[in-house]
Amino acid sequence: MNDDHRRILDAVDAGFDAQLATTRDFVAIPSTRGAEAPCQDMMADLLRQRGYEVDDWHIDVEDLKEMRGFGPIEHDFSKARSVVGTYRPARHAGQSLILQGHCDVVPAGPVEMWDTPPFDPVVKDGKLFGRGACDMKSGTIGALYALDAIKAAGLKPTARIHFQSVIEEESTGLGALSTLQRGYRADACFIPEPTFGKMVRSQVGVIWFRLKVRGLPVHVYEAGAGANAINAAYHLIQALEKLEAAWNERAASDRHFGNVAHPINFNPGIIKGGDWASSVPAWCDVDCRIAILPGWSVAEHQAEIVACVAAAARDHRFLSNNPPVVQWTGFLSEGYELKDSAAPEAAFGKAYAAVYGGSVPDMSFTALTDTRFYGLNYDIPSLCFGASGGAMHGFNEFVDLDSLRQSTKATALFIAEWCGVEAV
What we know:
Elements: H1 3-14, H2 16-27, H3 37-49, E1 53-58, E2 81-87, E3 97-102, E4 122-124, E5 127-129, H4 133-152, E6 155-157, E7 161-166, H5 174-182, E8 188-191, E9 199-203, E10 205-214, H6 229-251, E11 266-273, E12 283-292, H7 298-314, E13 325-332, E14 336-337, H8 342-355, E15 362-365, H9 371-378, E16 382-384, E17 389-390, E18 398-400, H10 401-419, E19 421-423
Parallel strand pairs: 3-7, 3-8, 8-16, 9-15
Antiparallel strand pairs: 1-2, 2-7, 4-5, 5-18, 6-19, 9-14, 10-12, 10-13, 11-12, 17-18
């Protein structure tokens, strides 16, 4: 470790209280799907305050529909925005970098089931609690303060850096896709998702779909004369659970996921149906998620889902003549394997060794990240590494603050190593 590195690490420590305060402010914004604008306003302000060149634009879905990895949008997208802050060096000597985080968060669920309010972040026992504290607002702010630490150490990067704040990571990935459509490119991408101090070597893709099941409504006193759409939906769910099992058997031969227990997870995540407790329900919609592995075709696995649902319907008294509909509702995402990334991985390996000691541990991730767009669409090696935490998408989500401090240090040293630095 040289003197520059020591000054950077010291600067992360000196700025950590300010970093935590900014993170709390960021987490306090309830940036659920369609309501991300205040977070993007905050991020644009933070970037402008630091002197970055800020590009803040509304996303036009029509511009993205022909791009690889596009997923359909069902909600009002008229206020959707991406924000990019660009640092341009006076002298180009290093390699360019995209630093990206997403500001959208999943719904908090019943607030009364949280120990503390989800959008009133609390620090206790060395952890920051709140929706999005772990996934992934702390990582985004950590990357911003990693850049601050380089400046505070009396240094400046010698390569172009795009700091990107995106939305839709939790449902389609169109925020990241929009930055590529806008023309942003770099020699590498780094996304500080919470990875428990490991480098994501391989990650699943995800397909979202809706089962639209229709029944025959009658008064419940003659229930046998009707067809219960909710019960019929459960019949289809059970068939899809068998498909999940078959796909997991297929995954056993994968070089990254073969040793991962149950990498393919099917989840019926939302169910709506019926209109009256004393009427046999005429309709039921079930929103589902299922994973696929890197190298698996999205289109082929969509076809398997449709075939599975059709076969189950043929075995059902009512559905055999009233087949359900499968509707694609969000993610249509391929899995991603980190490849052709020796140079940025070597740079990060040095940073990791200086902060943690030893070699970077790998992980095969049974969720997905935006890294896929950079690697698959434009051959930009995309690293994903970040802090530890827990209860992501659950109650009492938290990020561990010691691990956040460490990951911020590793991010700062990686930027210095990859982009190069010189005295201000």
